[in-house]
Structure formats: structure tokens, C-alpha cells
UniProtKB/TrEMBL annotation:
SUPFAM superfamilies: BolA-like (SSF82657). This is BolA-like protein. Residues 117-137 are annotated as: Disordered. Pfam families: BolA (PF01722).
Amino acid sequence: MSCWRRTFGGLRSNYTMLLAKRAIHTCMARYGPVRDRIVQRLQIEFKPTHLEVDCESHNHAGQDDDERHFYVQIVSNNFEGLKTIQMHRLVNNCLREELAGPVHALRIDAYATSQFSRDPPTVPPKCAHTRTERISK
């Protein structure tokens, strides 16, 4: 008996099976080596009080396997007194090797610690190029 049949034995249709496989594959692709490198670089450079790095490649047609589109939410004391564009430039500069190589798109929400605690952000908007159907949450 295959691993998939044991895991998803109750699923009947081939379409449902395909969606289940893609959902699991997509979840695994969100935590790959490029994401890990981004997290490591940001932690070393900014010592953030909050850091969220999500791979959004699964939202883009034909890019389920790639780690090319990322969303970063970072909160750090290093951003105190800086404008949004200055914070974004610091993050982009920190990740310049990734942006020159495997990373195609980077959405950034950067906050100073005082700003984040005083006025926490709402849910970020979806990427403009997001597919309409979503395989996993």
C-alpha cells in the first residue's frame, strides 16, 4: 500500500488526491533553504523582537516548487526613528545576495519596536499576482 493511500485512504477522487498532495508539497516548500538563509541573515543583522518570513511562491502560477517570492514582517529596535523607505532599504541591503540570486520578489513590512507595540499591524494584503484559487492555508 502506498504512503499516499495509507495517509489519505478516505479520499475518493483523483482530483482530491492531487489537491492533498499539492497542499502537503506546498507546505514543505515554504520552509526551504532560501527561507532559512533569509531568517538567519535578518536575525544576525537586526536582532528582531518579531520576525515572520513566509514563502509566497505557492501563490504564483507555475512556481509551486520555487522559493522565489517572500513576505517579511520584521520588528526591530534598529528601525527606531527611520522612515518606512529607510527600513526597507536596510532589509533589501541585508538580503542583497538573495535578491541578486534566487529571490524574485520580496514584500516587506518593517516596524520599529515602539511603533509595533503601539499600533500593531492588520493582516497584510495579498500579493497582487496571487492566484485566485488557493491550495493550502
